Amino acid sequence: MTRIANLFFIFSLIGIAAAAQTSALSSDEALLDRVQQQTFNYFWEGGEPISGAARERIHEDGVYPHDDADVVTSGGTGFGIMATIAAIERGFITREEGRKRLQRLAEWLQQADRFHGAWPHWMYPSGKVKPFSRYDDGGDLVETAFLAQGLIVARQYFRNGNKKERKLAALLDQLWKEVDWNWYTRGEHILYWHWSPEHEWRKNFAVTGYNECTIMYILAASSPTHPVDPACFHEGYMRKGEIVSNESAYGYDVVLDHNGEGGIPVGPLFWAHYSFMGLDPRGLHDSYADYWLLNRNHTLIHHAYCAENPRGYAGYSEECWGLTASYSISGYDAHHPSNDLGVITPTAALSSFPYTPEESMLFLRHLYEDHPGIIGEYGPYDAFSVQSDWRLPRYLAIDQLPIPVMIENYRSGLIWELFMSAPEIQEGLQKLDIKRTQNK
């Protein structure tokens, strides 16, 4: 072959490779696979090696506050458990690999610090509590609820498997049933977020809706061992019906009061994600809300707000949208339309795939095609601002790990189906008079 022919052949191969790469990126399914696997790897490859739990944060720049690179988070670990089930079904890992990892994690959770069955927000690899704040050094019932959601999903997945899988399922079942939800009522018709053996109820945080805590009340009512009175949900979380909202924004009903957010009356988008990673909102309704409409409208209001861009931030558009709690230019902040700092957080739109598939796909493609500089080893970095020319090569568990789970719910409904198949959940929903009609 002549030199010219050789060059022609080489350039042809380069062209073929480039075309293949473009073709792969142009496939929505391939792009969904890519972002699911990358974000799952935050848990799988980036997880803390002793416990197998999710690190609170991973900073590619190596800069950590107080040298806390190995601190793990209970809620993010629950999200990671659900992501592991999705990863098995997508073929990212084998079923046996997933089982081994979750067995190690479950055994670690069994010996880790607990406070009336509830895990703390943060733990060291030893399993000892790391205080989240001055008086928050004990049980965190909200983070425990996020973890328990994952325990139930994995239990349902492995319960009819081989001997080793059934052993794992039994331990997961035990862990969830040991949470004493009733303790956290203090004998009242409401749930309290924190309890500490040293400071007891010093934080005094009674949880009322609407926010990210819906799943806590569902699980507390569903517990077969330490259930709470259904009045906790109706009087505490739903505030005796005062939670129902008559407000709207951009032509969409808000449905439930977002705790006085003001301005455009919706909170950050993680409220539509964390409780509904296992809890299936399709057709779910009660006297207060249609939960699918609640979450879809919440997401559409965010999209419409960013498309309108009333503050004139650079980068906002129909393709670039989504506000939620994340890193920000001046530290962690809960972004929403009434607290808009010009920061886009990728998990907001990506974890909303079930509610807004077209708008979320536009954002996903925009992210990978137009902002490759904010894509790292574990998918999109936590947040960015075109307006301020700002980004950090950092991730947070509670932002990365909802992405593979909610995308899987959009693609197959797998995690929703597993969680809703749990008999305790069905009984709990019935106790709370929450009904399900045919899935939408």
Can you lay out the helices and strands and say which pair or pack?
Layout: H1 3-26, H2 28-44, E1 57-59, E2 72-73, H3 74-90, H4 95-111, E3 122-123, E4 129-130, E5 139-140, H5 141-158, H6 163-177, E6 194-195, H7 214-222, H8 231-237, E7 248-249, E8 252-253, E9 284-285, H9 291-308, E10 325-326, E11 333-334, H10 346-350, H11 357-370, E12 375-376, E13 379-380, E14 384-385, E15 390-391, E16 394-396, H12 397-400, H13 402-411, H14 414-420, H15 423-431, E17 435-436
State the separation between the terminal residues, measured CA to CA: 61 Å
Q: Catalogue the unreliable spans.
A: 1-24
Helix/sheet category = mainly alpha
Mean pLDDT comes to 93
- CATH homologous superfamily designation of the domain at 42-304 and 414-435: Glycoside hydrolase 144 (GH144)
Strand residue content: 5-15%
Tell me the helix content.
40-55%
Q: Could you describe the largest sheet, including whether it forms a barrel? A: 3 strands, antiparallel
CATH-level-2 architecture of the domain at 42-304 and 414-435: Alpha/alpha barrel
Kindly report the spatial arrangement of strands forming the biggest sheet.
2-3-4
Based on Cα principal axes, name the global outline: globular
Named CATH topology of the domain at 42-304 and 414-435: Glycosyltransferase
What is the count of helical runs? Answer: 15
Please report the first level of CATH classification, the CATH class of the domain at 42-304 and 414-435.
Mainly Alpha
Query: How many individual β-strands?
Result: 17
Radius of gyration: 22 Å
